[in-house]
Amino acid sequence: EMAVGASFFDNRTMPAIFGPLIGQTSGILYHYDLPDNEINDWLTEKIKAEVGTPPDLFDADGMNAALLLVAGLKSSGGDASSAALIPAMEGLEFDGPKGKIYIRPEDHVAIQDMYIVKLLNLDDPDFKYYELVSTTRPNPPCLLPESMQDRCGDLPIGSLSGQ
């Protein structure tokens, strides 16, 4: 028997992989029925109308990328050059489908809500597979390469290897 550590993910592949894990608890980055805000409601309505199914992780992340770009352009006075957009986006906070997202200036990590859910089923026609256990907002260590770690400031420094 092998222990597996993985988060739940998109609606389409969940049934193919996680069938034996009904009743288990794990993390998930986004599921359309977890955030309770007007932006997520709008996204859900539009995606359902356009494609007939609710939005998935990639829809929410695509919308977040677009919202970040718009906020960055507003902050830069419309200057779309990387020299203007990078500092304009550093420290930005904006509302997206998952709620408030903060772009950490030190390493450009998007600090955002994530969800701990219990897997209830994999056959709901509206992909309502989960029960919300809790919402978390991870603040990971700075993972910049050693040559850039001076940017990390007071953040704890970590590594992708976990060491």
* Average residue pLDDT: 92
Low-confidence stretches: none
Tell me the number of strands.
6
Widest sheet, order of strands: 1-5-6
The main β sheet shows up as: 3 strands, antiparallel
Beta-strand residue percentage: 15-25%
Order of helices and strands: HEHHHEEEEE
What labels describe this entry?
alpha+beta; 163 residues; globular
Topology:
Elements: H1 14-18, E1 25-28, H2 38-51, H3 57-75, H4 82-89, E2 93-96, E3 99-103, E4 110-111, E5 114-119, E6 130-136
Can you give me a brief rundown of this structure?
The protein is α+β, with helices and mostly antiparallel strands and 163 residues long. The chain is built from four helices and six strands. The chain has a three-stranded antiparallel β-sheet with strand order 1-5-6, with no helix packed on it.
Give a description of the structure.
With 163 residues, this protein is an alpha+beta fold. It has one domain. Helix content is 28%, strand content 17%. The chain has a three-stranded antiparallel sheet, with no helix packed on it. It has a three-stranded antiparallel sheet with strand order 2-3-4, with helices on one face. The two termini are 27 Å apart.
